[in-house]
Design a protein that fits this description.
347 residues
């Protein structure tokens, strides 16, 4: 559910690729990276390859659910590093035999992680995951076309927005949207409450112009839609893509947050190279490039200090107190089947 626009390339980073990363790795080989498209910036990939001689095979998925299905199909093998969402890691833990217990002694930069992003519900003892980025949704809109201000998520279903809203192709985020509007948890298991959410989605469907995981903001920038409900990073990208449009971002009440994390699958074929890549991407310069290219808030202690005041304006840093007051999407167990049926009908 990501799409990013490269806004910064650090030539110095490529030249000094291992600054802060420890001794240069001499080994050759490959590392198979599996995550959303452009979630790891090209500049970081190129710098890692130049510094280590290890080739990055970067393959993509569109949803956490797609990732899990592919990883299960290869029994936790084929891929070396996966970057995926928190609730899906909880599901992977429940299934067993998919995650490798990490040896943090092989990740010298592990101490750079901000403790606020550790000890989470999906990995309370930090055995399997390394935090990468935190995200939360927002609304990008053109105030010249609509009068709504999106203080509440319910504004997305306003009749004036018929065929004028773009959303990401994300089942849990959008069913959660319907649950939240109705006053329920994003992780609701009560089927009667889920039925209420389903009814709201039927009404909301008239407003949905398109599902776009990769470029929801592009519809607003290009004038094809007045609104998109997507990751805040995508909304930021829309604002900066054409500043003359004076597009606005709103953070409605009732939104959620999600944390993406590095994992190493249980049967990763290139385990040492996986550790090398994760460690490299935890360096300060990697963090800087990640934020300036993807607009996401990194989970590093250096997430803010590596950017100037002006650069921080381009990153989707959570508003003060936001992450303390929002829900995370979690594993709903067997009720997942109900969510699947709701999503199939909605689409």
């Amino acid at each position: 559910m990501k799409k990013f626009f490269i806004v910064f390339v650090s030539a110095l980073f490529v030249a000094l690729a291992l600054t802060g990363c420890g001794k240069k790795t001499k080994g050759k080989g490959v590392v198979n990276l599996f995550t959303w498209q452009e979630y790891v910036p090209d500049v970081n990939v190129a710098a890692f390859e130049k510094a280590t001689g290890i080739k990055v095979n970067y393959t993509y998925f569109s949803t956490n659910e797609e990732m899990l299905a592919k990883l299960e199909a290869v029994n936790g093998g084929q891929y070396d590093v996966v970057i995926c969402g928190d609730y899906i890691i909880d599901i992977m833990n429940e299934k067993g035999n998919l995650l490798k217990k990490l040896d943090v002694s092989k990740i010298p930069n592990y101490d750079s992680i901000d403790p606020v992003f550790q000890n989470k519900f999906f990995d309370p003892e930090n055995k399997y995951t390394v935090p990468y980025a935190v995200m939360f949704p927002a609304v990008l809109y053109n105030p010249k076309e609509i009068s709504l201000t999106f203080d509440s998520l319910s504004d997305l279903a306003d009749p004036s927005l018929e065929n004028n809203v773009v959303i990401t192709d994300d089942p849990r985020a959008n069913i959660g949207l319907a649950l939240s509007v109705n006053g329920y948890s994003y992780n609701e298991k009560d089927t009667s409450r889920l039925s209420e959410a389903q009814a709201w989605l039927r009404t909301f469907r008239k407003n949905v112009k398109a599902f776009s995981t990769d470029d929801p903001e592009g519809f607003v920038v290009n004038g094809e839609a007045a609104v998109c409900y997507a990751n805040a990073s995508q909304c930021k990208a829309g604002v900066f893509r054409d500043s003359s449009l004076d597009l606005k971002i709103a953070y409605p009440s009732g939104i959620f947050s999600q944390q993406d994390n590095y994992i190493i699958p249980a049967n990763a074929p290139n385990e040492d190279n996986a550790y090398a890549l994760i460690n490299f991407l935890l360096s300060e310069e990697s963090v800087r490039n990640m934020e300036l290219n993807t607009y996401y808030q990194n989970c590093s202690k250096h997430a803010k200090s590596v950017l100037s005041k002006e650069e921080l304006e381009t990153v989707a840093i959570a508003p003060e107190g936001l992450l303390d007051s929002v829900e995370s999407i979690e594993n709903v167990g067997t009720v997942t089947e109900v969510y699947d049926r709701i999503w199939t009908e909605f689409k």
